[in-house]
């Protein structure tokens, strides 16, 4: 049986992950894998900088981050979209060990064969979202609803009601 996704060049950005067959809503496509590190370890490794505009770091919970730069899999190539067809779902460890929580990417709606898989990264930075940072974290999804940035507004009243990674 064919895998349900493949990695190839993306019209959105760099590499992307594409459905190799029609997928219904609610399909668990892939686990987002990488080395699990504390927030402090990630800051030390990557300078704690918000200036890169690119990351394979995924916040798992208040204590840990999944670093797909190390031991990452194809999930790290799933691009952001302001109108995503997938969502990131965090599954807590049944024994309460937050270092063993997991992240899965699941379809939100039916996905056509050949369609690029995307989710809303939902990035919120603690610093002020200046025009320069919004541009640095610019969105290239091409959706008619594109916000122009991967950064999610910090104030609850202006946040879009969409789950993200």
Question: What number of domains?
Answer: 1
Mean pLDDT figure: 89
Largest sheet: 4 strands, mixed
CATH class placement:
Mainly Beta
CATH topology: Beta-clip-like
Measured distance between first and last alpha carbons: 29 Å
Number of helical segments? 2
The Cα radius of gyration reads 16 Å
What amount of the residues lies in strands?
25-35%
The appropriate CATH architecture is Beta Complex
Spans where pLDDT lies below 50 across 5 or more residues: 157-165
Show the helix and strand layout.
Layout: E1 5-9, E2 15-19, E3 28-31, E4 35-38, H1 39-46, E5 57-59, E6 64-67, E7 79-80, E8 86-91, E9 102-107, E10 116-119, H2 131-136
Parallel strand pairs: 7-10
Antiparallel strand pairs: 1-2, 2-10, 3-9, 4-6, 5-6, 8-9
Structure description:
The chain has about 160 residues and is mostly beta strands. The strands form three sheets. Strands 1-2-10-7 form a four-stranded mixed sheet, with no helix packed on it. It has a three-stranded antiparallel sheet with strand order 3-9-8, with no helix packed on it. Strands 4-6-5 form a three-stranded antiparallel sheet. It is about 10% helix and about 25% strand. The chain has two helices and ten strands. The chain has one domain: Beta-clip-like.
Summarize the structure.
Helices cover 8% and strands 26% of the residues. The chain has 165 residues and is mainly β.
Give the tags.
mainly beta, 8% helix, Beta-clip-like, globular, 165 residues, disordered C terminus
């Amino acid at each position: 049986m064919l895998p349900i996704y493949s990695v190839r060049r993306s019209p959105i950005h760099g590499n992307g992950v594409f459905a190799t067959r029609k997928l219904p809503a609610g399909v668990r496509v892939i686990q987002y894998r990488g080395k699990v590190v504390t927030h402090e370890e990630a800051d030390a490794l990557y300078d704690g900088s918000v200036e890169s505009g690119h990351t394979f770091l995924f916040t798992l919970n208040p204590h840990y981050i999944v670093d797909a730069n190390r031991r990452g899999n194809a999930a790290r190539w799933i691009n952001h979209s302001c109108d995503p067809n997938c969502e990131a779902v965090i599954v807590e460890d049944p024994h309460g060990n937050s270092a063993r929580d997991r992240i899965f990417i699941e379809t939100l709606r039916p996905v056509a064969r050949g369609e690029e898989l995307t989710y809303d990264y939902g990035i919120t930075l603690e610093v002020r979202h200046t025009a320069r940072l919004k541009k640095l974290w610019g969105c290239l999804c091409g959706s008619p609803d594109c916000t122009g940035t991967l950064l999610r507004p910090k104030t609850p009243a202006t946040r879009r009601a969409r789950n993200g990674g």
